[in-house]
Amino acid sequence: MNFPVLDRLASVIPSRAKARRLIRQFSELLQAEVIPSSGKKLQNGENANCLGDRLRSAWRDGTLNTKQLRDNLNVLYVAGQENPQLLMVSSLYLLGKHSEIQEYLREKIKDLSISNLDDLDWRSLPYLTATILECLRLLPPISQLVNRHVAEPACLGGRMHIPRGTYIGYNSYATNRDPVAWGPDANDFRPERWGSTDEQISRKYRSAKARAEFISFHGGSRACLGEKFALLQMRISLFVLARAFRWELDPEWKDQMTPAGPLHPRGVRLVFKKL
Ligand code: HEM
Q1: CATH number of the domain within which 229 lies
Q2: Which residues are involved in binding heme (predicted)?
Q3: I need a labelling partner for 34 at 20 to 30 A (CA). Which of 48, 86, 199, 201 fits?
Q4: Whose CA is nearest to atom 20 of ligand 1?
Q5: Tens-digit pLDDT profile for residues 100-109
Q6: Runs of H (alpha helix) within 35-154
Q7: Is 10 domain-assigned?
Q8: What is the ipTM of this complex?
Q9: Using CA positions, which residue lies closest to atom 23 of ligand 1?
Q10: C-beta of residue 134 within 8 angstroms of C-beta of residue 97
Q11: Domain contains 90
Q12: Full domain range(s) for residue 176
Protein backbone atom coordinates (compact mmCIF):
# COMPACT_ATOMS: atom_id res chain seq x y z
CA MET A 1 0.00 0.00 0.00
CA ASN A 2 1.23 3.46 -0.89
CA PHE A 3 2.51 5.81 1.81
CA PRO A 4 3.07 3.31 4.67
CA VAL A 5 3.39 6.24 7.06
CA LEU A 6 -0.42 6.49 6.94
CA ASP A 7 -0.55 3.25 8.93
CA ARG A 8 0.24 5.37 11.98
CA LEU A 9 -3.11 7.09 11.46
CA ALA A 10 -5.07 3.84 11.28
CA SER A 11 -7.35 4.98 14.12
CA VAL A 12 -8.58 7.95 12.04
CA ILE A 13 -8.45 6.17 8.67
CA PRO A 14 -10.39 2.94 9.35
CA SER A 15 -10.09 1.77 5.72
CA ARG A 16 -6.33 1.60 6.24
CA ALA A 17 -6.66 -0.78 9.22
CA LYS A 18 -9.23 -2.83 7.29
CA ALA A 19 -6.89 -3.15 4.31
CA ARG A 20 -4.02 -4.32 6.54
CA ARG A 21 -6.35 -6.87 8.17
CA LEU A 22 -7.41 -8.18 4.76
CA ILE A 23 -3.78 -8.48 3.64
CA ARG A 24 -2.99 -10.49 6.79
CA GLN A 25 -5.98 -12.80 6.25
CA PHE A 26 -5.10 -13.29 2.60
CA SER A 27 -1.52 -14.17 3.49
CA GLU A 28 -2.64 -16.71 6.12
CA LEU A 29 -5.05 -18.28 3.65
CA LEU A 30 -2.36 -18.58 1.01
CA GLN A 31 0.04 -20.16 3.48
CA ALA A 32 -2.62 -22.64 4.63
CA GLU A 33 -3.19 -23.67 0.99
CA VAL A 34 0.48 -24.35 0.36
CA ILE A 35 1.49 -25.83 3.69
CA PRO A 36 -0.57 -28.76 4.84
CA SER A 37 -0.85 -29.10 8.61
CA SER A 38 1.35 -32.21 8.88
CA GLY A 39 4.83 -32.71 7.48
CA LYS A 40 3.65 -35.18 4.84
CA LYS A 41 5.67 -36.41 1.91
CA LEU A 42 4.93 -35.62 -1.74
CA GLN A 43 1.43 -36.84 -2.61
CA ASN A 44 0.06 -37.98 -5.92
CA GLY A 45 -0.55 -34.93 -8.07
CA GLU A 46 2.17 -32.89 -6.33
CA ASN A 47 5.01 -31.98 -8.58
CA ALA A 48 8.53 -31.55 -7.18
CA ASN A 49 9.20 -28.89 -9.83
CA CYS A 50 6.08 -26.88 -9.12
CA LEU A 51 6.86 -23.54 -7.46
CA GLY A 52 4.55 -24.07 -4.47
CA ASP A 53 6.07 -27.49 -3.79
CA ARG A 54 9.60 -26.17 -4.10
CA LEU A 55 8.87 -23.37 -1.64
CA ARG A 56 7.29 -25.91 0.69
CA SER A 57 10.36 -28.17 0.61
CA ALA A 58 12.64 -25.17 1.17
CA TRP A 59 10.55 -24.35 4.26
CA ARG A 60 10.58 -27.96 5.46
CA ASP A 61 14.35 -28.30 5.19
CA GLY A 62 14.90 -24.93 6.91
CA THR A 63 16.23 -23.03 3.87
CA LEU A 64 13.33 -20.60 4.36
CA ASN A 65 11.87 -19.64 7.71
CA THR A 66 8.10 -19.17 8.02
CA LYS A 67 8.21 -15.41 7.44
CA GLN A 68 10.37 -15.84 4.34
CA LEU A 69 8.04 -18.52 3.04
CA ARG A 70 5.03 -16.28 3.57
CA ASP A 71 6.71 -13.25 1.96
CA ASN A 72 7.71 -15.34 -1.06
CA LEU A 73 4.21 -16.73 -1.43
CA ASN A 74 2.72 -13.25 -1.26
CA VAL A 75 5.04 -11.71 -3.80
CA LEU A 76 4.78 -14.62 -6.20
CA TYR A 77 1.04 -14.84 -6.01
CA VAL A 78 0.35 -11.12 -6.20
CA ALA A 79 3.13 -10.23 -8.65
CA GLY A 80 2.76 -13.34 -10.75
CA GLN A 81 -0.99 -13.35 -11.00
CA GLU A 82 -2.38 -9.85 -10.63
CA ASN A 83 0.06 -7.89 -12.80
CA PRO A 84 -0.24 -10.04 -15.95
CA GLN A 85 -4.00 -10.01 -15.51
CA LEU A 86 -4.07 -6.19 -15.27
CA LEU A 87 -1.85 -5.89 -18.32
CA MET A 88 -4.12 -8.22 -20.26
CA VAL A 89 -7.20 -6.18 -19.36
CA SER A 90 -5.45 -2.89 -20.23
CA SER A 91 -4.22 -4.29 -23.55
CA LEU A 92 -7.69 -5.48 -24.52
CA TYR A 93 -8.98 -2.03 -23.57
CA LEU A 94 -6.38 -0.17 -25.67
CA LEU A 95 -6.90 -2.46 -28.65
CA GLY A 96 -10.68 -2.19 -28.26
CA LYS A 97 -10.39 1.57 -28.26
CA HIS A 98 -7.96 1.68 -31.21
CA SER A 99 -9.65 -0.68 -33.63
CA GLU A 100 -7.28 0.23 -36.47
CA ILE A 101 -4.31 -1.06 -34.43
CA GLN A 102 -6.23 -4.19 -33.46
CA GLU A 103 -7.00 -4.78 -37.14
CA TYR A 104 -3.40 -4.23 -38.18
CA LEU A 105 -2.20 -6.64 -35.49
CA ARG A 106 -4.69 -9.25 -36.72
CA GLU A 107 -3.45 -8.78 -40.29
CA LYS A 108 0.09 -9.55 -39.14
CA ILE A 109 -0.79 -12.78 -37.37
CA LYS A 110 -3.96 -14.19 -38.88
CA ASP A 111 -2.46 -16.17 -41.77
CA LEU A 112 0.22 -17.99 -39.83
CA SER A 113 -0.56 -21.66 -40.01
CA ILE A 114 0.58 -23.35 -36.84
CA SER A 115 -0.56 -26.51 -35.19
CA ASN A 116 1.33 -25.99 -31.97
CA LEU A 117 2.14 -22.72 -30.20
CA ASP A 118 5.42 -24.24 -29.00
CA ASP A 119 6.63 -24.20 -32.61
CA LEU A 120 6.11 -20.47 -32.96
CA ASP A 121 9.17 -18.24 -33.09
CA TRP A 122 7.92 -15.07 -31.39
CA ARG A 123 10.80 -13.10 -32.94
CA SER A 124 9.01 -13.44 -36.25
CA LEU A 125 6.06 -11.42 -34.87
CA PRO A 126 7.60 -8.00 -34.12
CA TYR A 127 4.32 -6.09 -34.31
CA LEU A 128 2.84 -8.32 -31.59
CA THR A 129 5.82 -7.60 -29.33
CA ALA A 130 5.69 -3.86 -30.11
CA THR A 131 1.97 -3.75 -29.30
CA ILE A 132 2.49 -5.45 -25.93
CA LEU A 133 5.37 -3.13 -25.01
CA GLU A 134 3.31 -0.11 -26.00
CA CYS A 135 0.45 -1.29 -23.76
CA LEU A 136 2.94 -1.80 -20.93
CA ARG A 137 4.41 1.65 -21.51
CA LEU A 138 1.09 3.51 -21.48
CA LEU A 139 -0.67 1.53 -18.78
CA PRO A 140 1.92 -0.07 -16.48
CA PRO A 141 0.03 -2.28 -13.96
CA ILE A 142 2.22 -0.99 -11.13
CA SER A 143 1.73 2.63 -12.03
CA GLN A 144 3.14 3.96 -8.79
CA LEU A 145 4.86 2.29 -5.88
CA VAL A 146 6.09 3.82 -2.65
CA ASN A 147 7.76 0.95 -0.84
CA ARG A 148 11.34 2.00 -0.12
CA HIS A 149 12.76 3.41 3.06
CA VAL A 150 15.85 5.64 2.82
CA ALA A 151 18.53 3.93 4.93
CA GLU A 152 21.02 6.82 4.89
CA PRO A 153 20.49 10.54 4.15
CA ALA A 154 20.77 11.06 0.41
CA CYS A 155 20.94 13.90 -2.06
CA LEU A 156 19.57 13.65 -5.61
CA GLY A 157 20.94 15.84 -8.37
CA GLY A 158 22.89 17.93 -5.87
CA ARG A 159 19.77 19.73 -4.63
CA MET A 160 17.10 17.33 -3.45
CA HIS A 161 17.90 16.26 0.10
CA ILE A 162 16.16 13.13 1.36
CA PRO A 163 16.41 12.54 5.11
CA ARG A 164 16.96 9.10 6.54
CA GLY A 165 13.70 7.20 7.08
CA THR A 166 11.79 8.88 4.24
CA TYR A 167 9.48 6.65 2.26
CA ILE A 168 10.25 6.87 -1.45
CA GLY A 169 9.07 5.20 -4.62
CA TYR A 170 8.62 5.64 -8.31
CA ASN A 171 5.92 6.54 -10.78
CA SER A 172 6.02 4.36 -13.88
CA TYR A 173 3.00 6.01 -15.46
CA ALA A 174 4.65 9.44 -15.61
CA THR A 175 8.15 8.14 -16.38
CA ASN A 176 6.95 5.99 -19.28
CA ARG A 177 5.18 9.01 -20.80
CA ASP A 178 7.96 11.55 -20.40
CA PRO A 179 7.96 13.62 -23.64
CA VAL A 180 11.69 14.26 -23.25
CA ALA A 181 12.31 10.53 -23.77
CA TRP A 182 9.32 9.57 -25.94
CA GLY A 183 8.62 12.75 -27.89
CA PRO A 184 5.58 15.02 -28.15
CA ASP A 185 3.30 12.06 -28.93
CA ALA A 186 4.33 10.26 -25.71
CA ASN A 187 0.68 9.88 -24.68
CA ASP A 188 -0.37 8.28 -27.96
CA PHE A 189 -0.80 4.55 -28.52
CA ARG A 190 1.71 3.93 -31.30
CA PRO A 191 3.28 0.43 -31.27
CA GLU A 192 5.49 1.28 -34.25
CA ARG A 193 7.53 3.64 -32.07
CA TRP A 194 9.34 0.52 -30.81
CA GLY A 195 10.62 -0.39 -34.29
CA SER A 196 9.59 -2.74 -37.07
CA THR A 197 11.99 -5.66 -36.67
CA ASP A 198 12.73 -7.85 -33.70
CA GLU A 199 16.30 -6.49 -33.54
CA GLN A 200 15.14 -2.86 -33.47
CA ILE A 201 12.51 -3.57 -30.82
CA SER A 202 14.96 -5.48 -28.60
CA ARG A 203 17.50 -2.68 -28.89
CA LYS A 204 14.92 0.00 -28.08
CA TYR A 205 13.59 -2.06 -25.17
CA ARG A 206 17.06 -2.59 -23.67
CA SER A 207 18.07 1.05 -24.05
CA ALA A 208 14.77 2.44 -22.70
CA LYS A 209 15.13 0.19 -19.64
CA ALA A 210 18.82 1.02 -19.12
CA ARG A 211 18.03 4.76 -19.30
CA ALA A 212 15.08 4.33 -16.91
CA GLU A 213 12.69 5.70 -19.53
CA PHE A 214 10.57 2.55 -19.41
CA ILE A 215 10.20 1.19 -15.89
CA SER A 216 7.09 -1.01 -15.99
CA PHE A 217 9.22 -3.91 -14.67
CA HIS A 218 11.34 -1.55 -12.56
CA GLY A 219 15.08 -2.18 -12.98
CA GLY A 220 18.42 -2.90 -11.35
CA SER A 221 18.87 -5.60 -8.76
CA ARG A 222 15.21 -5.58 -7.68
CA ALA A 223 13.72 -5.70 -11.16
CA CYS A 224 10.79 -8.01 -11.87
CA LEU A 225 11.81 -11.66 -11.90
CA GLY A 226 8.85 -12.68 -14.03
CA GLU A 227 9.38 -10.25 -16.91
CA LYS A 228 10.11 -12.81 -19.61
CA PHE A 229 7.40 -15.14 -18.38
CA ALA A 230 4.85 -12.27 -18.32
CA LEU A 231 5.75 -11.26 -21.88
CA LEU A 232 5.37 -14.83 -23.07
CA GLN A 233 1.96 -15.13 -21.38
CA MET A 234 0.89 -11.92 -23.11
CA ARG A 235 2.17 -13.00 -26.51
CA ILE A 236 0.31 -16.30 -26.34
CA SER A 237 -2.94 -14.78 -25.03
CA LEU A 238 -3.09 -11.88 -27.49
CA PHE A 239 -2.06 -14.09 -30.38
CA VAL A 240 -4.87 -16.55 -29.68
CA LEU A 241 -7.49 -13.88 -28.91
CA ALA A 242 -6.77 -11.63 -31.91
CA ARG A 243 -7.01 -14.59 -34.28
CA ALA A 244 -10.30 -15.79 -32.86
CA PHE A 245 -12.16 -12.58 -31.96
CA ARG A 246 -12.70 -8.95 -32.83
CA TRP A 247 -13.61 -6.79 -29.86
CA GLU A 248 -14.59 -3.22 -29.02
CA LEU A 249 -15.45 -1.16 -25.96
CA ASP A 250 -19.04 -1.42 -24.86
CA PRO A 251 -20.45 2.03 -25.80
CA GLU A 252 -22.44 1.97 -22.55
CA TRP A 253 -19.26 1.78 -20.47
CA LYS A 254 -17.91 5.07 -19.12
CA ASP A 255 -14.21 5.24 -20.03
CA GLN A 256 -12.39 5.53 -16.69
CA MET A 257 -9.20 4.37 -15.00
CA THR A 258 -8.63 3.28 -11.42
CA PRO A 259 -7.77 6.40 -9.39
CA ALA A 260 -4.69 4.96 -7.65
CA GLY A 261 -2.79 1.76 -6.94
CA PRO A 262 -2.93 -1.02 -9.54
CA LEU A 263 -3.74 0.68 -12.83
CA HIS A 264 -6.43 -0.62 -15.16
CA PRO A 265 -9.59 0.57 -16.89
CA ARG A 266 -12.11 0.44 -14.08
CA GLY A 267 -14.88 -2.10 -14.62
CA VAL A 268 -14.15 -2.15 -18.35
CA ARG A 269 -16.76 -3.82 -20.54
CA LEU A 270 -15.82 -5.23 -23.92
CA VAL A 271 -17.94 -6.72 -26.66
CA PHE A 272 -16.36 -9.71 -28.41
CA LYS A 273 -17.40 -11.11 -31.79
CA LYS A 274 -16.20 -14.50 -32.94
CA LEU A 275 -14.41 -14.39 -36.30
C1 HEM B 1 2.90 -7.69 -16.73
C2 HEM B 1 3.31 -8.38 -15.73
C3 HEM B 1 4.23 -7.87 -14.64
C4 HEM B 1 4.59 -6.59 -14.31
C5 HEM B 1 4.18 -5.28 -14.97
C6 HEM B 1 5.50 -6.70 -13.18
C7 HEM B 1 6.11 -5.62 -12.57
C8 HEM B 1 6.96 -5.73 -11.49
C9 HEM B 1 7.58 -4.61 -10.84
C10 HEM B 1 7.42 -3.13 -11.22
C11 HEM B 1 8.34 -5.10 -9.82
C12 HEM B 1 9.20 -4.29 -8.85
C13 HEM B 1 8.41 -4.00 -7.58
C14 HEM B 1 9.20 -3.11 -6.64
O15 HEM B 1 9.78 -2.11 -7.08
O16 HEM B 1 9.20 -3.41 -5.43
C17 HEM B 1 8.18 -6.53 -9.83
C18 HEM B 1 8.79 -7.38 -8.93
C19 HEM B 1 8.64 -8.75 -8.95
N20 HEM B 1 7.95 -9.50 -9.88
FE21 HEM B 1 6.88 -8.77 -11.44
N22 HEM B 1 5.64 -8.02 -12.86
C23 HEM B 1 4.90 -8.77 -13.72
C24 HEM B 1 4.79 -10.14 -13.75
C25 HEM B 1 5.43 -11.01 -12.91
C26 HEM B 1 5.33 -12.46 -12.96
C27 HEM B 1 4.51 -13.24 -13.99
C28 HEM B 1 6.08 -12.94 -11.93
C29 HEM B 1 6.35 -14.36 -11.49
C30 HEM B 1 5.82 -15.41 -12.00
C31 HEM B 1 6.66 -11.81 -11.25
C32 HEM B 1 7.50 -11.90 -10.15
C33 HEM B 1 8.05 -10.82 -9.52
C34 HEM B 1 8.86 -10.93 -8.30
C35 HEM B 1 9.23 -12.23 -7.57
C36 HEM B 1 9.23 -9.64 -7.95
C37 HEM B 1 10.08 -9.21 -6.76
C38 HEM B 1 11.53 -9.08 -7.17
C39 HEM B 1 12.39 -8.56 -6.01
O40 HEM B 1 11.91 -7.81 -5.16
O41 HEM B 1 13.59 -8.88 -5.99
N42 HEM B 1 6.26 -10.66 -11.88
N43 HEM B 1 7.34 -6.90 -10.85
Answers
A1: 1.10.630.10
A2: 224
A3: 86
A4: 224
A5: 999 999 999 9
A6: 51-60, 66-77, 83-97, 99-109, 126-138
A7: no
A8: 0.98
A9: 83
A10: no
A11: yes
A12: 84-274
